[in-house]
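Standup notes
- DV: blocked on the single-chain target, sequence here:
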Amino acid sequence: MTMPKPATPLRPRRDLLVAFLCGGLVAGMVGLSFAAVPFYSWFCRTTGYGGTPQTASVAPGQVSDRTVTVRFDSNVAPGLPWKFEPERRTIDVKLGEVVTVYYTVTNEAARITAGQAGYNVSPTTTGIYFTKINCFCFTEQTMKPGERREMAVVFYVDAKLAENSELDGVKLITLSYTFYPIRVPDQAAAEPAPPKSGRI
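- DV (later): unblocked, structure below
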């Protein structure tokens, strides 16, 4: 009597399929995480979510008689040896009025360091009306030992804020910046130079 041949085991194939699916899932999640960062940034800039100010390339055409006080806040994250402060703490501005203010930053280390600033405004509901025309935020700043710079922020508070009855009680808007340490570019690290200062 001839014995039947044993069936080929299917488990290795199943294991391979499961491993392939898991790998694909992990790769997809990694891809989505990278895509989520620019999408979230775009969403915040578009809607003002989380107090994210808007950006514009030209001045508005309407100026209101209503004024608000804008307060300027400055912070430096741990690990970055910089002194960072606004030249003035508050300013009264008319809605729609274009204003330029300066922040001063000094590298207090005896080495080249680099940082990049993030920002927001509060109350967060005013983010969609706070518009920057020029700003140093999200631009890598590489500072030589002892270097001091003055960095401009050009902005306006949109006159449309006055049309939002929910914001009738807003008298103060705080613009807050925080500088975070980043890796010094290789070229800058290889080319030390005497400190200098100047407006950028």
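- Follow-up: Residues 11-47 form the longest helix (37 residues).
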